Amino acid sequence: MTYKVFVVDDEPMIRYGLTSCISWAQEGLELIGEAANGEAALQLIQQQEVDILITDIKMPVMDGLELTRRVKSLYPDIKVILVSSYSDFEYAREAVQLGVVVDYLLKPTMEPADLLRILQVCKMKLDESAVRVQKSMTTKNNDLENGIKKLLQGEVVQFSVVPVWLKEPLVVSVWKLEAVETSAQAGGLEKLIQLEKAKSYLLSGFTESIGFITSEQQLVLVTGYNNGSINQQLEKAQQYMQKQEKAAFTVGISESIHSIEAITAAYKWASHALDQAFFDGRNKCYLGKISSHYIIPKSEDADLVWLEIKERFSKAYAAAIFDESENALRALYAAWDSKLFSANEVILQAKSLITIIWSRNMNLKTNDKINGILDKLQEIILIDTLQKLISYMNKEFKEIWESNKISILNEDSNSAHAIQLAMSYIQENYRSELTLQSAADHVHMSRNYFSEQFKKVSNLNFIDFVIQLRINNAMQMLRQTNLKVYDIGSQSGFNSSKHFLKLFKREVKCTPAEYRQSQRELKVEAEI
């Protein structure tokens, strides 16, 4: 780092000697000016920052000690070298009390080597101060960043120090990396590098901001409102990233908030704004409205629409009425297209329907059928637009129908309908406490009759189906999260860690920890 030096002395020959005896650039220094007295020096120093001040003590108008006092108030970390023709104890004592004087040189005995030695001491002290300041700023920034991260998770946070700009109106934006155009199949490392580049660009462009990466595909930026111009600025930044950095981002932007505590809600608005991309297209900026239906709970009418359409489809599908089944699907697609449901709800509904559709795939053996359903559920999660989802659902419906030549006697259609709804119910609730009795109760059957009909209609055993759903969910969480193994087991529907470990090893042929490690190694290999 280059430090700036200013020289003050009322004797021209002394000033010349001080300024000409040092190779400033070679020593990592820059001589930025000189003056004949303290007042003239102060006027110049007020216009540009100074790191090292070399000043005579006794000068007309304003002496060196008064100049030092004044400059210290401007630049507390400045280092001062005093120069005088007198060896005066009182001057030396007063200079030391100022706290910024590094050393004292006598003009009659001063040599260039003496000045150079003291300049190098000044540089060392300035370096130490810079490190301390940087560490202090880093600590404060880390504390602030960690606090905001906790706010995003809904925790209550008490901040010891809050920058002034965070007390003004704020906006939260969520940046989701959709694709890295330089690589058709960008790995996790490449995505992370791209996110780091995006974060650096955003933080340099928005000086009053704080940003951090929250996942392999997402970063969060908190910025000042900038008198309402921030949305346009964020859109320009998004376009720059796509055109110049070849990285496509979908951005959700919150409305302005007026306190740091409101970041929790603003983050939700911005995150929900990303849902709009599912319906209206990726690689755009979307504004999250406070009044959006994503925030305000839906009316019960929306839930009734879904339940009625699911019932209608299941009955027609069980009775092998193609046109009515297709019409029910079209009705659901229309509800999806009208944004009656959020993107997440649409995906959950599609998973429920695909389970019903695949329940009639009678050409597969038990394990193949379960694995087929699990594969389809995973494929649906990865679909990123509504039009792709509708195309996918239509394809699956027609392929299963045609390949199985679906036809059911009227007297069997009621049981088929009930079991289809039961499979949908199981798929939606396997992560909670689910039993054969609760599934039977859902479709108003006795426990034994339900078990018999479940096997007859679906060609699956109830418990096998539930276990495979739970194991598959656990495998997905082991790949995608850092949660503890026993938490994953619990969240996947297992009520005992011991039972989870036993079944996982039986089905996957390794422990959950071994599976997680193997998946991480495969991921690293894929990125090399």
TrEMBL record:
GO molecular function annotations of the record: DNA-binding transcription factor activity; sequence-specific DNA binding
* UniProt xrefs under InterPro entries: CheY-like_superfamily (IPR011006), Homeodomain-like_sf (IPR009057), HTH_AraC (IPR018060), HTH_AraC-typ_CS (IPR018062), Sig_transdc_resp-reg_receiver (IPR001789)
Residue ranges of the HTH araC/xylS-type domain? 420-518
Top-level taxon in the UniProt lineage: Bacteria
Recorded protein name is Response regulator
Boundaries of each Response regulatory domain copy? 4-122
Instruction: Write down a Pfam family by its short name.
Output: Response_reg
Question: Where are residues bearing 4-aspartylphosphate located in the sequence?
Answer: 56
Recite the UniProt keywords alphabetically.
Answer: DNA-binding, Phosphoprotein, Transcription, Transcription regulation
In the record, biological process GO terms are: phosphorelay signal transduction system
What PANTHER family is this protein classified in?
ARAC-FAMILY TRANSCRIPTIONAL REGULATOR, HTH-TYPE TRANSCRIPTIONAL REGULATOR EXSA
Q: Which SUPFAM superfamilies match?
A: CheY-like, Homeodomain-like
Q: Does the keyword Transcription regulation apply?
A: yes
